[in-house]
């Protein structure tokens, strides 16, 4: 789901460091305002924030605040974090690759690949296509929007609790659809759980294995992983927190699976997005499908696991009425908020992660992150002139 609008509306003293690519001599100065913007997110209440920025071939990494409040360990750009719904872009890319290979069509019905899985209470897998899963026009209910869904984790305190993807789907189809397939837009994690099952039905391999085989290994994303039930974040990592400062790092990813279970770093995520939007991963026809958004009143310009944004730039020669087009993926889950942006010409990127997301607050209809303009300022600093 798109985070920038919500963060801007609701939105620790920091030490910020700027570095060029590891092992390379210092290059051009970092974009003006980036250091201050990332530092502001920490001053405004995020314990830690890390960012990757790129303009052309020049890269910068930035870190602010602490990775672990208990120990005072400093945040560092190479530390891992849960990327949550950024996972969806990996899943969409795999399905688009498979379409390019002729192994399926995005216009295949869900019923074709998952017979009997989406049935009952007005739900009909025969009427829903894979494309509608990927662009959130299926109408399938999302039970992860309900407080009762997370009661085992948040009320009972069982962070190791396992809810399988098929159980999430079963809960979804106990509800009537939000609308008839193709007749509206509604973000639903269930769509991407079904998409993951389609990957498995076609390939006869697990979805995490297929993502590793097709994306992580070829791109050398050595710090990206896909836990299925393991509640820990392994290796050097940022700790994530809720608004009360409670450590939310340990949290079973089982329910999120292909909707949001992956762990990565800002560098790995940036490399993936550069390949995704640069045409390295997909054939031209599938590249067009990736970036063809749906058009519904009051709905975002959502393509297939990615979203088109118009970034207001009121700096230099660029006028406020002349926004910059960018492609976005983002993620929000217990303890972590992250956003990745790539300009339409592929020349500029920003990947930023900050260490607060309060799931309980979100479920109660309250702002889940501290109020801060730092995240929006970082966007402007990197993407705009």
TrEMBL record:
Residues 42-352 form the Beta-lactamase-related domain. The keyword Ribonucleoprotein does not apply. Residues 1-21 form the signal peptide. The keyword Heme does not apply. This is Beta-lactamase-related domain-containing protein. It comes from Streptomyces malaysiensis. Keywords: Signal. PANTHER family: D-ALANYL-D-ALANINE CARBOXYPEPTIDASE, D-ALANYL-D-ALANINE-CARBOXYPEPTIDASE/ENDOPEPTIDASE AMPH. It comes from the Bacteria.
């Amino acid at each position: 789901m798109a985070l920038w609008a919500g963060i801007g509306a609701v939105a620790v003293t920091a030490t910020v460091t700027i570095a060029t690519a590891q092992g390379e001599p210092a290059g051009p100065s970092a974009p003006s305002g980036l250091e201050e913007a990332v530092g502001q997110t920490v001053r405004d209440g995020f314990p830690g924030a890390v960012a990757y920025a790129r303009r052309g071939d020049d890269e910068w990494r930035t870190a602010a605040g602490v990775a672990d409040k208990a120990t005072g360990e400093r945040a560092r750009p190479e530390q891992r974090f849960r990327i949550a719904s950024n996972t969806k872009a990996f899943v969409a890319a795999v399905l688009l690759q498979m379409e390019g290979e002729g192994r399926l069509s995005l216009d295949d019905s869900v019923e074709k690949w998952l017979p009997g899985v989406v049935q009952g209470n007005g739900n009909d897998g025969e009427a829903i296509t894979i494309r509608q899963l990927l662009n959130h026009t299926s109408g399938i209910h999302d039970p992860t929007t309900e407080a009762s869904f997370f009661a085992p984790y948040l009320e009972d305190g069982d962070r190791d609790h396992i809810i399988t993807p098929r159980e999430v789907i079963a809960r979804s189809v106990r509800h009537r659809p939000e609308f008839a397939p193709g007749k509206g837009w509604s973000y639903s994690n269930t769509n991407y759980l079904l998409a993951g099952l389609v990957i498995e039905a076609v390939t006869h391999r697990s979805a995490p294995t297929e993502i590793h085989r097709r994306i992580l290994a070829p791109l050398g994303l050595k710090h990206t992983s896909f836990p299925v039930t393991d509640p820990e974040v392994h290796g050097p990592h940022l700790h994530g927190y809720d608004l009360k400062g409670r450590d939310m790092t340990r949290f079973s990813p089982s329910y999120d699976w292909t909707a949001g279970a992956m762990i990565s770093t800002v560098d790995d995520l940036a490399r993936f997005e550069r390949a995704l939007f640069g045409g390295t991963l997909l054939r031209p026809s599938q590249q067009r499908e990736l970036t063809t958004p749906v058009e519904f009143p009051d709905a975002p310009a959502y393509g297939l696991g990615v979203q088109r944004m118009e970034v207001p730039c009121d700096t230099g020669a660029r006028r406020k009425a002349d926004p910059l087009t960018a492609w976005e993926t983002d993620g929000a889950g217990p303890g972590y908020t992250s956003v990745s942006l790539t300009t339409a010409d592929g020349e500029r990127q920003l990947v930023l992660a900050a260490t607060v997301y309060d799931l309980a607050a979100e479920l109660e209809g309250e702002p889940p992150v501290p109020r801060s303009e730092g995240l929006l300022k970082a966007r402007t600093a990197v993407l705009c002139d």
